[in-house]
Amino acid sequence: MKISVIIPCYNVEKWIDRCLESVICQTIGLDKMEILCIDDCSSDSTLLKLKAWEERYPEHFIIIESSENGRQGTARNIGLSYATGEWISFIDSDDWVEKDYLEQMLTIGQQDEY
Fold first, then answer.
1. What is the DSSP letter of 60?
2. Would you tell me how many other CB atoms lie within 10 Å of the CB of residue 87?
């Protein structure tokens, strides 16, 4: 079972490292996820930071560079077109998540009553 984590990114150089650190430290493990970061034409060093993460974890990171700023909704839709996971999670690039966030999402999503 794989989760596609979609993260729209626009001028978040101050926050993206904390966000991505919280994603790679998930209790389900990196092997159960792909991380799709959509750079929405950032004008700061967001893209450089994303590329550094991709170099560290090349099997798990996909960076998609948008040709024009389409805002969060467009970036999420672009991410969906690349996603291969059975489950999808959207995380904002200036947020971070608890270590068991994805594990809890899967547990609840797999319960019969949902």
1. T
2. 17
